[in-house]
Amino acid sequence: MSAASESELLATVPDRLFIGGEWVSGSGGGSIDVRDPATGAVLKTIADATPADGLAALDAAVAAADSWAATAPRQRGEILRGAFDLLQERRDDVALLMTLEMGKPLAEAAGEVSYGGEFLRWFSEEAVRISGRYGRNPEGTGQMVVSQRPVGPCYLITPWNFPLAMATRKIAPALAAGCTVVVKPAELTPLTTLYVARLLEEAGLPAGVLNVITTSTSGAVSEPIIADPRLRKLSFTGSTPVGRTLMKQAAQNVLRTSMELGGNAPFVVFGDADLDKAVEGALLAKFRNIGQACTAANRFIVHRSVAAEFSRRVAERVGAMRIGRGTEEGVAIGPLIDDRAVDKADELVQDAVSRGATLVAGGHRVDGPGSFYEPTVVTAVPLDSEILREEIFGPVVSVVEFDDEEEAVRLANDTEYGLVSYVFTENLARGQRMIDKLDTGMMGLNVGVLSNAAAPFGGVKQSGLGREGGLEGIHEYLSTKYTLIPNG
Ligand code: NAD
């Protein structure tokens, strides 16, 4: 892709806040430089919202709430479907935009356009399927009616790692349910959300239904919004520490919350696994998004009988991965989001090695410009290593060995997180036992990637609360009302 087409695309991306159907400058006059993590160059300078701008966005969402809730579900669905169609027309642009601001290889960005777009289509279809119940009470004295109502104005906070999908996974069900929203994307990758807002505007979304604020002071801007009694729901995707802080703030007004937080996924390979499948699954589960996914396999727990062979094959594939800017042909490993992410990956690898792990591939930073780290494999990782406790969020495979099924389960569950697990075995009964025994909200059985708009995505333990996508996703934005009608 030529530099000219990159700059032409960037020129089409809004650089202001979207409040009440208007693209407005921030009231403080400040700006945010959005950078390309592969070069460090500024891609675009956009408005930096103040707390007053955040509250203005909430004002707009509150003002539009009743009329949007009263809009026919079919009409809400048609607008989402229109945005889906526009996204398909511009899929190359959206993919490039994500690669530019986040760094993932272009082919993966195209995959995210498909995945992220599906939330618009799926919830366009769900908008007309919001249903209730009607039936006689057990005493026979009346009729019980159970209906669903939109929860009201929502505040949606998204992370930088999947700039499109994390936004549509919240925006689409909220709008389908009849809620108005204020969206705050991560300051590192806000451009895709601004682009999506424009698509929804073009698709006919009424003013005030969707508002977007971009800010470099997320805490200061978010706190007054969360404290405002007119807000009804907070949906957050991001790290567990920030999620905890937000849950405390949300407790003040007993807000409905959805929390999609961090992960520390176990990837368990049994001795009876098909190693071809396990190696392919490992590459997907680890290196997609340059390892920067909440669903990324963090701990490879491999049966002693196959550990050496599995590690050798993974290391061989890792050695052939090309590192570079995501726009370049054949690049598998783009930059990490910033230099801090490189420091963290390196510290975790060095800590494991200093405790006795064996480095079998990678293990070094790559000279700049840009924030690159080599795809890395460490084996025989001691159990007290930090790399097994923390989300790595980088392209590092860390392998520990086990001897029996019970030990594998114990190791896999030995974390405060519980988002997703991966299990590789050709023994169906064992696979079924793992479904029951692993404490995670999701599991891939002989597969390394499982996200789907039609599936409920979410975790248990400190990976969060609530589900996004699937039949469950829209219920995060609906409240249940029960009415009794006594017999006449
Ligand atoms: P982060 O928690 O630093 O930031 C997430 C969002 O919260 C950003 O928009 C950020 O600006 C905002 N934020 C930060 N501090 C805030 C505050 N005090 N008040 C209000 N907003 C605040 O996370 P990140 O680095 O952007 O994303 C990576 C994390 O997200 C990882 O832990 C990853 O596992 C998690 N994640 C989870 C899921 C999931 O579905 N479970 C999906 C993607 C990412």
> Oligomeric form of this entry?
single chain
Strand content: 15-25%
Helix content: 25-40%
- What is CATH's topology name of the largest domain? Aldehyde Dehydrogenase, Chain A, domain 1
Alpha-carbon distance between the two ends = 71 Å
Regarding CATH, which class of the largest domain? Alpha Beta
Q: How many domains would you count in the coordinates?
A: 2
Bound molecules: nicotinamide-adenine-dinucleotide
How many DSSP H or I helices? 14
Number of strands: 22
* Biggest sheet, spatial arrangement of strands: 14-17-18-13-12-19-20
Please tell me how large the radius of gyration is.
23 Å
Q: Strand count, sense and closure of the main sheet?
A: 7 strands, mixed
Report the uncertain regions.
none
Q: Which SSEs are present, and which pair or pack?
A:
Layout: H1 3-12, E1 17-19, E2 22-24, E3 31-35, E4 42-47, H2 51-70, H3 73-89, H4 91-102, H5 106-126, E5 133-136, E6 142-150, E7 154-157, H6 165-177, E8 181-184, H7 191-202, E9 210-212, H8 218-227, E10 233-237, H9 240-251, E11 256-260, E12 265-269, H10 275-287, E13 297-303, H11 304-319, H12 339-354, E14 358-361, E15 365-366, E16 372-373, E17 376-379, E18 396-402, H13 405-413, E19 420-424, H14 428-437, E20 442-445, E21 464-465, E22 478-486
Parallel strand pairs: 7-8, 7-10, 8-9, 10-11, 12-13, 12-19, 13-18, 17-18, 19-20
Antiparallel strand pairs: 1-2, 3-4, 5-6, 6-22, 11-21, 14-17, 15-16
Helix pairs in contact: 2-8, 3-5, 3-6, 3-7, 4-5, 5-6, 10-11
The structure holds nicotinamide-adenine-dinucleotide.
